[in-house]
Here is the input.
Amino acid sequence: MLNKVYQVPYGTKDILPGEMKRRRSIENAILDVFDKWGYEEVKTPGFEYADTFGSGLKDNDFRFFDRNNNLLVLRNDMTAPIARLAATRLQQGEGVKRLCYLANLYRYEEIQMGRQCEFEQAGVEFLGAYGAEADAEVIVLAAQALQAAGLQEFAFSVGHVGFINGLAEEAGFTAEQVLQLKDCLRRHDAVGLEELAAQANINEEIKQLFGDFLFLQGGVELLEQLSAVVKNETCLAALQDLRQIYTLVEEHGAGKYVSFNLGLYRSLDYYTGMLFEVYVPEMGYPVAGGGRYDKMMRGFGMDCPATGFAIGVDRVILALERNTSDEYITIAMPKGKLFKKSLAYLEKVGYAAENVTEDSRKLVITNEETKVRFIIAKTVDVPTYVEYGAADIGIIGKDVLLEENKDVVELVDLGFGKCRLMLAVPEKNLRPALTDYAHLRVATKYPNCAKAYFNKLGIQNEIVKLNGSIELGPLIGLSELIVDIVETGTTLRENKLVEVDSIFTATARLIANRASFKLKFARLHKLVEDLRAVLNERDK
Here is the structure.
């Protein structure tokens, strides 16, 4: 009889006795800080009616039906459930309500370090209070909770939705342009922001602000500089709000942890004012985040201002285990056609080391003098190294960046390695329109980009994933069409394939890890400025 090994579901894990003891100690330390500040612990169900989350429902939610065909959702966020609880169960009494929680949440994620489908958060919701005092309180509280958990080196990145909205107002953006702006900020896409600014009919000072949105980072002096440039009242009010918050945070002794990032825009859309993320050197992504959300309670029939934050308990534990802070800039270099030019451009701005070659058996090469470290990686792996924080920056084609869809900062369009992703079909099978094909079976090594393209057109399709020789697909009947990268089109012509549509053009991009972009901002900002100068000289 074979012994069956029982596994846990994808994205979950068992916690064993020793690890659980350490975890409970950290959880209790965080909750003790919440308690000392007067926050009362609450607990909500592990799943809610879908209506509770409203527009907060995401594609990666776990959803199911009960016996009465009501759509239910495993909670993906604690803010909406606590808003529901407060509006329906805690209406009695006047004044503010300070609530806290420790809860498991659920999102279908590609499993990565610090990301599981089931994860734990500890957080607070401060209900009923407007103004800088409440926002400062949650920042100070978050700092003290992280210290109690055992973290000593961390940085708050603080922004304001009002500044983003005000700058869009000042530029006279249409609703569609505002959506484009926020999408670029959400994706940390500096190249997209430059392109958006270039298309806008606005004065040069404001255009420069849009182009440099992700680089609007610094201390209180940044707020003063921006106040001298912008004229919009919403922008000025946001900057004043941030000044007041900082003053109050500083009075509590936590000012040393805070700096400003006016290009910060979190993935959750309910924020209305101040918002923040917290980074540590050991992790490539935030360990905590929060902000003000004054309109959410209206969805539950209660007009109530609110602010709060959540700490990723699993990420805090992982950061405590790693403890790998260093002063190097680590660069992920792509093997293949981009390698030589990538290295040449980096050398022009002082990022070099001896024996950095594509075929080197040594995969990590360090320049101790300049504190630069090179990783020689397979092209498709570069975004992963950068997203995880194994590399601070990397160079990769836009095609791979879109296909892999990693959460990184896109800093500079380097302009070389130009190619395009296109749709092609054998000459003999060419039809007047895509809809004339009975069934679209498409061979590609870019399945995500291909699906997005056809879905946008509303065309049904079947994707056949290949890793090479994509042109072979329609020649042997494996597929009707192909989606692939081309530079000159020679291979297409030799195999009697005709390009039907160009999907997008791709060039090499400099990308950065989110935490590195915050914690090593000065060095990375200078690198970007130096590269821009080199590129401007090249393009003259």
Q: What stands out?
A: The chain is about 35% helix and 25% strand.
